[in-house]
Structures are given as C-alpha cells and as structure tokens.
Design brief:
This protein is of the alpha/beta class. The chain is built from 21 helices and nine strands. It has helices at about 1-5, 10-15, 40-50, 50-60, 100-105, 135-145, 165-180, 190-200, 205-215, 230-245, 265-275, 285-300, 305-315, 320-335, 345-350, 365-375, 380, 390-405, 410-415, 420-435, 440-455, and strands spanning about 20-25, 30-35, 65-75, 75-80, 155-160, 185-190, 220, 250-255, 275-280. A five-stranded parallel β-sheet has the order 6-7-8-5-9, with helices on both faces. A hairpin with a 4-residue loop joins strand 1 and strand 2 (about 30-35). Helix 12 (about 285-300) crosses helix 13, helix 16 (about 365-375) packs antiparallel against helix 18 (about 390-405) and helix 18 packs across helix 20 (about 420-435). The longest helix is centred in the C-terminal third of the chain and has 18 residues, at about 320-335. The radius of gyration is 30 Å and the shape is flat.
C-alpha cells in the first residue's frame, strides 16, 4: 500500500487505498483478490486509478496477474467485479463485425436498435478547449444541439495525428444522442466502411448495405483519407453522402490533411467535402498542453508537482497522445523505482524521449538576473558608481556575457554603460581570479547560471 501512497495525495490514499485489504493471492492461477467496502469503490477505482493499480500490481505480482474485487459488508462478503487489465482507460469502441455487413448486426429501425459505436469516454466534458481547437469544438457543439440545421453540413475536421479529432467527433455524437435520443448516430472508421462494403459485394447484399447507411441521421467517418485509391468504395460513399445530405442528415468526417491535399480521391467527393465547413485542428499550444496534462494527472489520480507539468508542457510540443505517453512513462518509472515524481526525476527519465530546444541567453537576461540576485538596480551598474557591490554586479555581468554569449568585449562594454573593451577584459579577469579563492562568489555564479539556463529551456 505504501507504493500507492507515494503516487497519490495523502487524502486520496486515506480515502481510496487505505480501506483496501488483500483477500488472497493464487500464485499458480495468477489471481489476486482484494476486499473493498462497496460497489462504489470499485467504480471509482476503475475510473480514476486503474492504470496506477495495474502498474503497481504488475510490479509485485507479475504482468499477467488477474485482479478481482470483492465487496466486504460486515460478516458477509459478496463477489463484485473483475478489474479490466487494459492499461488504457479510453479503450476503442468495439466495431461492427469487421467482415460483416452492418444490416446483419442491426436492422434498420429505431435509434434504440442501433449501436452507435461511440466511445463513451470521449465527450465534451473531458475535451479541453484551446486556441488550436476552439473553432471545431464550437461548431461541433452547435451541430449536436441543432442537428436539423444544415449550416455546417458536412463538417470536415482535419489536422495531424493525435490532436484530438477522434475525441471531438465522438463528443459530437455523444452529445447528439444525449439531446436527441431519437437520432440514429453512427461512428466508424473509413477502413471499416471499406471492409464492410467489400463484404457486402462479395455476399451480394449491396442493396442492404446501402439501405442501412442511408437510414443514418448522423454519420461520423474517421480517417476518411483511408478511402484514397479505393474507386468502388468511393463510389458507394458518394451515393450515401448525396442521399444523406439531400435528406438533411448530418455528415462528419476527420482527415489528416485538407481536402485539396487528398491524392487518389475522386474530384466529385473532394468538391462535396469542401461544400460545408472545413475546420482545422492544430497541435495544442502551451497553455492547452498544460491544461491537458493537469487533466491527465487528475484522471489518473496522480501527484505531479506543477513545475514538472510546466516542464513537460513547455518542452513536449507534439500531440495529446505524446503528452499521455510522457505521463504514463513517469508513472511507471515512479512505481518501479519507488521514487517521487519531482523535476529532477522527470528531467532524467525524459532526457532520451524529448528534445529540449535551448534558446540563446541574452545579455539583457544576464544583467536583469544578476541585478535581481544581488538586489542592485540596473541603472547603478550602467552608471559610474564604484561601490563594491555595484562593481561586483557589473563585473559579474561582463563575465557571464563573455561566457554565455557570442558578444565581443567591445559589444559587452556598450551594453554595460558604454565601457571600453579594456574595462570589460579587466572585469572578466577580476571575477575569474576571485572565483578561485571565494567560495561565496562561486556559489553565486552557480545559482546565476542555473537561473539563466532555466530561462533558456
């Protein structure tokens, strides 16, 4: 239990982990049973701490262990639930049978008869808004609230992998079903559509295939670029598209590029893709990355300091999936090595996974940082004051500028009160000599360089 305690807050530990008790462990069957106080405990642990629990259990009992919970009420114990060992909480929804046409799984009828294939974990409630996704998110909410309007039909969402396109279209579908339960909403990948089309032709049930798709009120097709080069599949999709659009049914598509860049796609389809709203989703900006990281940390019930979150959000500039991978890596290393996640630990673990782009240190930063460290006003080092503390700051600024910038002595002199290069060289030599005998000055230099390097990350 102490392993859990080091990875969550004390309040979370006392509330959710302290009441747990190990009932039994079968080393042969690799089965671990744990007592919990209530069914609610099971649901909360699975929702918020599943990944942490399974990594920790795997660390002590092996990766193939099966974990089950039993509810203990007074002297009566009732078997409750077996935990899902999948480490990723947002599991992809099970598709229609990949080699089976949809009408064999579900007849055309009421919306209640249709499995929408939506991922219930991907909703607007956990889709974080930022500058990079504000337009598609706003439009998506408008579509869900008023699906009868055709202003944004079709909606074509495009952007690089991992920026949240799939999450967004699932959220639109989920919100639509919540507000309009009578609507027949269907989500599927373009690849699955292609497989089902091929199967329908092979089994000579193409008409049933077309009839099913033409009965949908909101059709969501993910990764539409997968249809490129598939002429027959594109032809079927074209007729489905036309039928739905003409009958006021909403079509939503995602793609990894804008329509104009789609190669191997019929021009008549590209024209229709462009006839509605094309909304781009870009890689998340730093404030959004920070918000996403806080959300991931909260969802997984972790305890990660703000400076670590800021470090990751500043240096990991890729996709949401990359951010998730970073957090999960930190969690795994933390559990395995029984280490708290702090900035030093994060930098060491992530050194080989992220590229830190260093910015050049400027002389303005050096002067500002040095004056702040010694509590001296910048105007004083630019002036003619010969006070000892002011001279030290002036010469330290010269020394740091010489070491960390490419400026010549003459240029440094101009920045530090229009002094000549001989004065700068004397100041550098003076600090260099003092560093050999003054421990306090060496400590000051280390602190200043640490701050300056931090500003450059």
């Amino acid at each position: 239990m102490e392993m859990f305690r080091s990875n969550v807050s004390e309040q979370q530990y006392q509330t959710w982990f302290s009441p747990m008790r190990i009932k039994s462990y079968d080393a042969v069957q690799k089965e671990l049973a744990v007592y919990i106080p209530s069914q609610f405990f099971f649901e909360y642990l699975e929702e918020h701490f599943r990944r942490l629990i399974h990594i920790t259990i795997s660390r002590f009992f092996g990766a193939d262990v099966t974990l089950s919970y039993e509810v203990e009420v007074a002297d009566n114990v009732t078997v409750n639930q077996e935990s899902d060992s999948n480490m990723v909480p947002e599991a992809a929804p099970s598709p229609l049978a990949a080699n089976q046409s949809p009408q064999l799984a579900q007849a055309v009828g009421m919306a209640a008869d249709l499995d929408s294939q939506l991922n219930v974990h991907q909703s607007f409630s956990n889709f974080i808004e930022g500058t990079s996704n504000k337009l598609p998110r706003s439009v998506g909410q408008a579509i869900a609230e008023h699906p009868e309007q055709q202003t944004f039909n079709p909606l074509f969402v495009y952007g690089p992998s991992g920026v949240g396109k799939t999450h967004l279209v699932n959220a639109i579908g989920m919100r639509t079903k919540e507000l309009h339960p009578e609507k027949r909403v269907l989500y599927l990948s373009a690849h699955l559509f292609m497989v089902q089309f091929t199967d329908a032709r092979r089994r000579n049930i193409f008409n049933d295939f077309m009839h099913f798709y033409q009965s949908i009120d909101m059709l969501i097709v993910d990764d539409v670029q997968e249809l490129a080069g598939m002429t027959a599949t594109q032809n079927a999709f074209f007729h489905i598209f036309n039928h739905l659009r003409q009958n006021g049914k909403q079509i939503i598509m995602t793609c990894d590029r804008p329509p104009v860049s789609l190669q191997g796609m019929e021009e008549r389809l590209i024209t229709r893709f462009k006839s509605g709203l094309m909304a781009e989703m870009e890689k998340p900006e730093e404030p959004l990355r920070r918000s996403i990281l806080h959300s991931i940390v909260k969802h997984d019930g972790l305890s990660i300091p703000d400076d670590v979150v800021n470090y990751i959000s500043h240096n990991v500039t890729g996709s949401v999936r990359e951010l998730e991978g970073i957090v999960h890596s930190l969690l795994a290393y933390s559990v395995v090595y029984s280490k708290d996640i702090d900035l030093e630990f994060a930098q060491r673990i992530l050194a080989g996974r992220i590229k830190i782009e260093k910015k050049d240190i400027t002389i303005d930063q050096i002067i500002s940082c040095t004056c702040e460290h010694y509590n001296v006003k910048e105007e004083e080092i630019f002036g003619k004051s010969r006070k000892a503390n002011v001279v030290t700051v002036r010469q330290m600024s010269m020394y740091l500028a010489h070491k960390h910038t490419k400026l010549t002595a003459s240029k440094i002199g101009i920045y530090v009160g229009n002094r000549d290069h001989a004065t700068v060289l004397h100041g550098i030599k003076t600090i260099d000599g003092r560093l050999k005998i003054e421990q306090k000055l060496r400590q000051d230099l280390e602190e200043l360089e640490g701050k300056l390097i931090g500003k450059a990350l």
